[in-house]
Amino acid sequence: xxxxxxxxxxxxxxxxxxxxxxxxxxxxxxxxxxxxxxxxxxxxxxxxxxxxxxxxxxxxxxxxxxxxxxxxxxxxxxxxxxxxxxxxxxxxxxxxxxxxxxxxxxxxxxxxxxxxxxxxxxxxxxxxxxxxxxxxxxxxxxxxxxxxxxxxxxxxxxxxxxxxxxxxxxxxxxxxxxxxxxxxxxxxxxxxxxxxxxxxxxxxxxxxxxxxxxxxxxxxxxxxxxxxxxxxxxxxxxxxxxxxxxxxxxxxxxxxxxxxxxxxxxxxxxxxxxxxxxxxxxxxxxxxxxxxxxxxxxxxxxxxxxxxxxxxxxxxxxxxxxxxxxxxxxxxxxxxxxxxxxxxxxxxxxxxxxxxxxxxxxxxxxxxxxxxxxxxxxxxxxxxxxxxxxxxxxxxxxxxxxxxxxxxxxxxxxxxxxxxxxxxxxxxxxxxxxxxxxxxxxxxxxxxxxxxxxxxxxxxxxxxxxxxxxxxxxxxxxxxxxxxxxxxxxxxxxxxxxxxxxxxxxxxxxxxxxxxxxxxxxxxxxxxxxxxxxxxxxxxxxxxxxxxxxxxxxxxxxxxxxxxxxxxxxxxxxxxxxxxxxxxxxxxxxxxxxxxxxxxxxxxxxxxxxxxxxxxxxxxxxxxxxxxxxxxxxxxxxxxxxxxxxxxxxxxxxxxxxxxxxxxxxxxxxxxxxxxxxxxxxxxxxxxxxxxxxxxxxxxxxxxxxxxxxxxxxxxxxxxxxxxxxxxxxxxxxxxxxxxxxxxxxxxxxxxxxxxxxxxxxxxxxxxxxxxxxxxxxxxxxxxxxxxxxxxxxxxxxxxxxxxxxxxxxxxxxxxxxxxxxxxxxxxxxxxxxxxxxxxxxxxxxxxxxxxxxxxxxxxxxxxxxxxxxxxxxxxxxxxxxxxxxxxxxxxxxxxxxxxxxxxxxxxxxxxxxxxx
Length: 917
Description:
Structural class: alpha+beta
CATH architecture of the largest domain: Alpha/alpha barrel
Low-confidence stretches: 1-22
Signal peptide: 1-21
Number of helices: 15
Largest sheet: 10 strands, mixed
CATH topology of the largest domain: Glycosyltransferase
CATH class of the largest domain: Mainly Alpha
Mean pLDDT: 95
Radius of gyration: 29 Å
GO molecular function: alpha-L-rhamnosidase activity
Catalytic activity: Hydrolysis of terminal non-reducing alpha-L-rhamnose residues in alpha-L-rhamnosides
Number of domains: 5
InterPro entries: 6-hairpin_glycosidase_sf (IPR008928), 6hp_glycosidase-like_sf (IPR012341), Alpha_rhamnosid (IPR016007), Bac_rhamnosid6H (IPR035396), Bac_rhamnosid_C (IPR035398), Bac_rhamnosid_N (IPR013737), Ig-like_fold (IPR013783), Rhamnosid_concanavalin (IPR008902)
Domain Bacterial alpha-L-rhamnosidase N-terminal: 176-347
């Protein structure tokens, strides 16, 4: 869209620049690589970002100056010995690339920014920090991997694998006063780190999972305050995680395992006298497997015997004579990388709402919410008493747990008491997806106070809120929040409860886009693109699951194509061009691989899953068997490949690979021609067998010839509105584009009907049947239990995108990615009477709060500083519009009977009379 200047004057009272106004503008939220004060990054030219916050309107950055120093003292004295950018004329406040002195291993950097705006000069009061990690493999050469690669007495390598936790300790002597100390740790599969008995960091289930044969993540902690002069104790506990796979010697052709837990650690200590010391893992560390964590298996649960607790094991002066020396072990094989996304944390707590006795002497605890994490237990009893907790998402008609949908996952935690007053316990190395818990072992009836639910997901901010006049839509939004958050586990997984929990690509093709409005998921998905890249075969193939914990390399378009669509989301929502440059060669390699192997007669003949999870004709079926409901796989794969070609043209330009654009364009032309020749019915103006998905994809992707576009849409809308009686008939593929396409063609009312429906099949049907997350199947309460997870997100499709972009009117202009300019164009006539939504973009908070009352509209909007918005109003008459109680110019821009205002940053009250219905 060409920039235009509106021929109108907004008579708005703005504060003129003064000391008072200056105090209302600040520079805040300084980030490096979109992380807050990260330790141990492995980017030598990191990107720096900041936000400008203001209570006054029309604040634009005109220039910036970044100061980076090697010490905080230097920075405070404005001695930018690493980089002084000087005053740079630019409105860019996001992803400014560091361009100072070369940064080396373990380099500390402290920085601040001065933003020059049209309202004056603002200095950041925050002083940010980042440090460089260990950059080369050689720098780890003197650090050995240690562990214990044997089974203990009660361990087993079987379908239901059991392996006790490894406890390691090392006493060190700190002989001088410590100036600074940092620890670098790779603990596979999961670790907890202690110094002098204190846990380091608030992370859980760390580090994030990878294919450890390809890459291994290290975490870095500043432990200066934890070390003292004299004797100190380093201690770690190693859990199994994805490293020692949940299923051993069971389908080895499918399930990947990496061996026994192991770790490598370096502690760098700098003394006040200028000398340094490095403490590393070696065979002088002591180890035992005879601790209280008897088993930890993500599918089956954690078993803990408090009688085996080793008081003071992670402090000095502990008697470890019965411990053995750690063994040197083989390294995992993957390259060592800094973890550039936060770990998981306990993000909130949930109090249970009821506890009821069962006929068999157990108790059923109801958390009131399908959640992901674990249960903290408080209990008193005798030594040797056992409390067993089994987790499930729902109940049977008799009030007992419904576990058929868990497949062979045991989902059970067992705690054995030591018998010393009140005991408080929670697991360390597992998680469960659950609402209900069967409790056994209490000698008297437990109370709600005995339990607290701990909600665990990646440490990321909730960035979006949404409320509307429709209660069903509001509950769907809440259900989506719980489902999305619960399935963030260092990678996006499909479900958290059964024996799967895998990072399926197809679940997030468009879902990641919608999720980005609710969560600041940028670093998570940038990491996941690396996972996908590492999973690529030498000839270019991509799997359906990445990291490839399951070896599902079957080739199709829709699932692996997520590699490209998620990259597009990161660019569109966060303005991240670097991730495109980094991934482009591998994306291109896959596109070429698919073209050379599966493009036949200019159509892509490779589809594995079809329109997955179309609502079936029977409530008991998992998948429809009715050919009239199923969409041709060649149509799906060809349409999707066509769409990906369009994205790749954009990526090629970003990646300075302009020579590729012509080839992509040629393929687009050929596929479009062949597609219409084969699938378009010129007599009926429909595609293939006239399923909604068959017509929807060519409409959404721009394949339909212009002269018949409206006719094809009318046929599709008829299928939705009349044939399906206003209900969903699409699966995972079609639902990704359904809501936006209906709205873009003028049927937002029909999209609203789908969003607010309460009968089968619909999102509201899930709500009406007690769902507090999103189901895997439209009939997830009745389908065959082998596949009816009650916490999946793939069926959300583009619903959340539609909530924000089409109902709230919060959309990033594709020509200015990352919300530098916002398109605020709600569909006021879809059926809602009010929407109140917000989104914390990379520039700051965006708000849209509108209310219709008969033929008037009240709309409050907030546009963050250093950005702007195109605001569309439902009238062509300037006399009907007021902005902050002032009239607008009668020559304001009109576009398709809508007035378009270009507003700078700030908060505005818009009132429109005689709105166009």
